[in-house]
Amino acid sequence: MKNLKKLGIITGLSLTLVACGGGDSEESDGERDSDGDVNISEEVEYTITGIEPGAGMTQQTNQLLEEYDNLAGWNHQESSTAAMLIALDDAIEKEEEIIVTGWIPHYKFAKYDLKFIEEPKEIYGGEEYITTIVRKGLKNDLPEAYEILDNIYWEPEDMGSVMLAAQDKSIEDAAQDWVNENQDTVDGWLEGIDAVDGQEIELVYTPWDSERSSAHVARLALEQKGFEVSMTQVDPQIIFQAIASGDADASLVPWMPVTHGEFYKNYEGEFEDLGPNLEGARVGLVVPSYMDIESVEELEPAE
Asked: Which intervals hold domain ABC-type glycine betaine transport system substrate-binding (predicted)?
């Protein structure tokens, strides 16, 4: 079992709350422009509510503010996935305006009525896929694990169902329930692979609920063939460092080609890419569907 603690890279979720726009609803029904419509830019206080500073999406959002002249003076509130979701939930409960960085698959799209707003310059890219990477030498050292990891593939709806279930129970229980209900799919990943006797393997994953879901489902699949699986949560930029250096064995995390593209390039050739474990992913700016906005170009610069 690898010791990632020596790198000082284990991370936890910050539960620091972020401020979301909207002001005091008891004092005002919202700032309105000359046509009487709500001024969304003022309502959100010229702020995009983001997630972890190390996430690829965070870097893209910072670039977004530089690329669009109409976003001059805007603030990107970096926080954590948990804090972003708290802010989103609070805004929706009060029917207030909020703009967050978001992605699919994610349970929030099943829990709330949300939409992406268009971003013509495609800073966030288009449709993405999530790939599996492993350390060099894994195929020789743990051929059965290598084959299982190479076989794992599921749909956004599968991942989303685990994420949604995990809102009412532990991620471990949600993943186990999904495996119990989809054993035929798991059997396809494991078909023809010999069982082992307690061989150790370490997976690394990020704080995103999507990657927590895939990591725990992969763990259960590997355990069905006798592997002893340990898992370590790290910041996104560390995933590639850990796999490239051999301090971890595998990860089902990288969103490609854009979200984690820069991290991937930094270590390309120092790990093995097994290909997509999920296709049809997307990242970008997300708002509640009741907000009257369709494009980032409709936003106004801060005064």
From this structure: 40-181, 200-300
